[in-house]
Amino acid sequence: AQKVTQAQTEISVVEKEDVTLDCVYETRDTTYYLFWYKQPPSGELVFLIRRNSFDEQNEISGRYSWNFQKSTSSFNFTITASQVVDSAVYFCALRLMNRDDKIIFGKGTRLHILP
Amino acid sequence: GAVVSQHPSRVICKSGTSVKIECRSLDFQATTMFWYRQFPKQSLMLMATSNEGSKATYEQGVEKDKFLINHASLTLSTLTVTSAHPEDSSFYICSANPGGGGYTFGSGTRLTVV
Hints:
Chain A has 115 residues and is mostly beta strands. Chain A contains no helices and twelve strands. Chain A has strands at residues 3-5, 10-14, 19-21, 24-26, 32-39, 46-52, 59-61, 64-69, 74-79, 88-96, 103-105, 109-114.
């Protein structure tokens, strides 16, 4: 069975601090996609990144960076120099390739950036 | 980029009435759409997968007679909450895959049953 675990339910940091959101996934399949989404208070889901299982290269996009390690089944997300606008719930998700298209979400991490 | 338009964004209805939520893929065809439900401070739980021209596939524990799904065209899927009750109050969100492995989500519908 597939599973996504986000052990951190809620995190609070002071603005300008760096923060890392953890994500651990479980699957026996060797081909899959991993995602991160941001959900601000308005409720919409904002796509942040998609990574496929063949590509373990880490990625940086502005203040955001992602560390994908297949050896530990982790796909962690770091925000550097956090800002108040980063306050949101962040979801990590998994989808198997060549299957029924379902996305499995973690329980989310609620991030509070304090001014 | 690919857009999924979801309406209404908010709806309040009386207990016992039915509510219809629409999701449209605006610039791509979606043979499959996914419906999720999210209770406050919880994750998104997949309710069902709607398939154009055929019956929807419901996840375990989701009542298909209560949550009617219709996917009549390649760009429109609807979810009807029938005989709604306060416990059905939730945030409902749809999604579709425009291709390339990614997913696009609608903006969600906040349903309140009073």
